Amino acid sequence: MATEMDKIFLTLAIVEFIIGMLGNVFIGLVNCSEGIKNQKVFSVDFILTCLAISTIGHLLVILFDSCVVGLAPHLYATDRVRRPVTMLWHMTNHLTTWLATCLSIFYFFKIAHFPHSLFLWLRWRMNRVIAILLTLSLFLLIFDCLVLEMFIDISLNIIDKSNLTLYLDESKTPYDKLSLLKILLSLNSFIPFSLCLTSLLFLFLSLVRHTRNLKLSSLGSRDSSTEAHRRAMKMVMSLLFLFIVHFFSLQVANWTFCILGNNKYTQFVMLALHAFPSCHSFILILGNSKLRQTVVRLLWHLRNYTKRPNPLPL
């Protein structure tokens, strides 16, 4: 029977699910309708649409996972439920993370400017760079699934033991293997985090350099390029902040779930873990002029509709 803490956890998980679905469904619908109307799909719209679709899938897995954790946590001790849910969770999380990273790198190449020949060469082949990163993410996903398969096998064997502490004292080998596999899974998450951080740092350097050049030429610091730099930095910085919360929550959740099992601490760590797929869509909407203008138009029409007088009854 669900306790009061389980009910609070489920309520917050459902709220996160609704918030994330609203933002990502909006992004997907707007970009698909624009692509059909213009008969042309731009790179940023393609990445945003793929990111929205992968996040929607991730949110659905999160909702199911939260319901199992909150209502029937004993099912996680069985291979029939834990393995497919864990695999789906990591696969959708992997795709969402890498697509968000590719979007940050896209904005970096699109807005930043450096006279270095390597940067200009990469910028000229930006679409190829994004395609190579996505291909690399697929290979890393295969590696991630193989590591995760071994991780689930070992953790299920540990869960089968009646006394985890006694079992670890008797045999340190499974725990050592589990620690090694956790490190490998963490490194797989660290790669997109490092790329996102690097793009933010280079955006900042590009903004500083651009602002210094404007001051030397006495043109001020409020031109369109400077504003584009600042908007991109705000969006990438917001994504990076959510990424940091997501990355560290993932590590804490992995260790606490393995050592402590399903308890109230693990549940609320999962809520922090799910903040990234739930909130990042609204950062993308605010940072994209087309999506932002569409939201403004929708709110304007909604306000006019609510102010419309009701017809008098006959």
From TrEMBL:
**Which superkingdom heads the taxonomic lineage of this protein's source?**
Eukaryota
What transmembrane ranges does the database entry give?
12-32, 44-71, 91-109, 129-152, 183-208, 239-262, 268-287
User: Which CDD domains does the entry mention?
Assistant: 7tm_TAS2R42
> Is Transport one of the keywords UniProt gives this record?
no
Presence of the UniProt keyword Glycoprotein in the record: no
The protein's matches in SUPFAM superfamilies, at most eight in alphabetical order, are given as: Family A G protein-coupled receptor-like
Query: Which keywords accompany this UniProt record?
Result: G-protein coupled receptor, Membrane, Receptor, Sensory transduction, Taste, Transducer, Transmembrane, Transmembrane helix
Q: Where in the cell is it found?
A: Membrane
Membrane topology type: Multi-pass membrane protein
Question: Sorted alphabetically, which InterPro entries does this protein's record hold?
Answer: TAS2R
Its GO CC terms are: plasma membrane
User: Its principal location?
Assistant: membrane
GO molecular function: any one? bitter taste receptor activity
Q: What does this protein do?
A: Receptor that may play a role in the perception of bitterness and is gustducin-linked. May play a role in sensing the chemical composition of the gastrointestinal content. The activity of this receptor may stimulate alpha gustducin, mediate PLC-beta-2 activation and lead to the gating of TRPM5.
Family affiliation: Belongs to the G-protein coupled receptor T2R family.
* Name of this chain's protein: Taste receptor type 2
**Native source organism of the sequence:** Macaca mulatta (Rhesus macaque)
